[in-house]
Amino acid sequence: MAAVCLPPAGWITGTPTPDGTIGTTNGRPGRPVHADTYRHTEGYVTELRLMAVHAHPDDEASKGAATVARYVDEGRRVMVVTLTGGERGDILNPAMDLPEVRERIADIRRDEMARAAEILGVEHHWLGFVDSGLPEGDPLPPLPDGCFAVVPLEEAVAELVKVVRTFRPHVMTTYDENGGYPHPDHIRCHQVSVAAYEAAADDAAYPEAGPPWAVSKLYYNHGFLRRRLQTLQDEFARHGQEGPFARWLEHWDADQDVFANRVTTRVHCADYFARRDEALRAHATQIDPDGFFFATPLEWQHRLWPTEEYELARSRVPAELPEDDLFAGIETAE
């Protein structure tokens, strides 16, 4: 089995040029991508494909869901890859916190995921690893034996490379090096996704996983932005309402919105916010339908913040930043 090398977090595969574009390399510093890297997979495809890699079922509905729903409606093929079954997730909807639900949580979460995928119109693949849970305590307890976060990295990368080389996406989305938030499975999701992005294009890596495929662009989701929360909270205040975000904003320095400085790409997808919410509600064990996530009227969101945000982390095609399309710069055969 090939060894996995993770390049430095945040490093873009490509050479910045004086005009602000990103040049083309293949994931190894200084070595250009050759067109044959793409042709190894039985020729160019004539459709655009996106693969969204997530740690748990429900993540696909809370991170980039409106974007993928838009692309599906525009004729793109979209696959969500869920790395774990979410078996150790807490039940966050009081109405679902029942003994019979807890006893069947793995099966129920699979059913929820199937319904959410149907709503979004995406293809779906389970990678098959076991949820690590979110450890709590001081000091933190050890992670459970055999869970995703402790499985050897190469094992998870090999499985994801198989899916990448089969589906052959032009674009992958995943989490940044902090996992979006420091859940061990989210951090591992980042590590596995970045390594698979690199390895899938390397004909010497994981030869048993199929012919190489070079994914053109890799993005990190950046949906949790302080400015967005403040904008929506201010609208509640203008309507004489308390708003759901005050506690977070109180403890979040306005000068420390570090993710905002990393955003390169804003995808307009407000017309799909309702479908995003429907997909999230499908995960009935994970979301309270009366909770904060649904507190902000859709009309306000359409008017005040109609986009979902991403960071272009690596690219094998020239990219002009900022962007408004994850597929910008990617061409398919006629």
Protein topology:
Layout: E1 21-22, H1 36-39, E2 49-54, H2 59-62, H3 65-73, E3 77-84, H4 99-103, H5 105-120, E4 123-129, H6 153-167, E5 171-174, H7 184-200, E6 217-221, H8 226-238, H9 246-250, E7 265-268, H10 273-282, H11 298-304, E8 307-315, E9 319-320
Parallel strand pairs: 2-3, 2-5, 3-4, 5-6
Antiparallel strand pairs: 1-9, 6-8, 7-8
End-to-end Cα distance, whole Å, is 37 Å
Percentage of β-strand residues:
5-15%
Strands, total number: 9
Order of helices and strands: EHEHHEHHEHEHEHHEHHEE
Order the strands across the largest sheet as they lie in space. 4-3-2-5-6-8-7
What is the overall shape? globular
In total, the number of domains comes to 2
Helical run tally: 11
Reported for the largest beta sheet, the result is: 7 strands, mixed
**Any idea of the CATH class of the largest domain?**
Alpha Beta
Quote the CATH topology of the largest domain: Rossmann fold
**Low-pLDDT stretches:** 1-43
Query: By helix and strand content, what is the structural category?
Result: alpha/beta
CATH A-level architecture of the largest domain: 3-Layer(aba) Sandwich
The mean pLDDT is 88
Q: What proportion of the residues is helical, as a percent range?
A: 25-40%
Determine Rg (CA atoms, Å). Answer: 20 Å
- Tell me the name of the CATH homologous superfamily of the largest domain: LmbE-like
Describe the fold and architecture.
Helix content is 31%, strand content 14%. It has eleven helices and nine strands. It is α/β, with parallel strands linked by helices and 334 residues long. The radius of gyration is 20 Å and the shape is globular. Helix 5 (105-120) runs antiparallel to helix 10 and helix 6 crosses helix 7. Strand 5 (171-174), helix 7 and strand 6 form a beta-alpha-beta unit. The chain has two domains: 48-224 and 261-314, LmbE-like (Rossmann fold), CATH 3.40.50.10320; 226-258, no CATH class.
